[in-house]
What we know:
With 187 residues, this protein is of the alpha+beta class. It is built from 4 helices and 7 strands.
Amino acid sequence: xxxxxxxxxxxxxxxxxxxxxADIMLIRQAEPRDIDxxxxxxxxxxxxxxxxxxxxFRAEADAAADRAFWTEVLDGDGxxxxxxxxxxxxxxxxTLQLLTPSxxxxxxxxxxxxxxxxxxxxxxxxxxxxALLRAAKDWARASQADEIRLEVMQFNQAAQGxxxxxxxxxxxxxxxxxxxxxxxxxx
Length: 187
């Protein structure tokens, strides 16, 4: 964590706050009025993924479909979306979902899945991601989750390093292979 970024503490009402001499960071539950900012931030991470994996990620999402998707994430049961603001401006967000797999061979566990964590490109390396991850862990604990899990694309070494610095380690690996050639793709 950068030296100018104090810890983000859990406060009443699900609001997380932090302050420095220069900036005030607030992490709160996102609201419908935040969807435009969420879509803007999601487009940033989508561009990063598209550049690395153009056969998998669209160059741009359809605006209406993107807005509908994030609105559904915002309103879902057993879910939350945390929004980080610095001086009142959106700086990042995280989406979380509670899951309780019921497979006969697994021990029962309540899992909090961190589906998305995005930090505005202009605010990276300023403690926003760390603050969002701490807030996500606090929300998961308050929701009685046994663990927090996430998936990171193999190309995203920066994100893998970030999560490793925060004590997360690989538990499994997702492998894939295309079954059909896509038009315009090299074989």
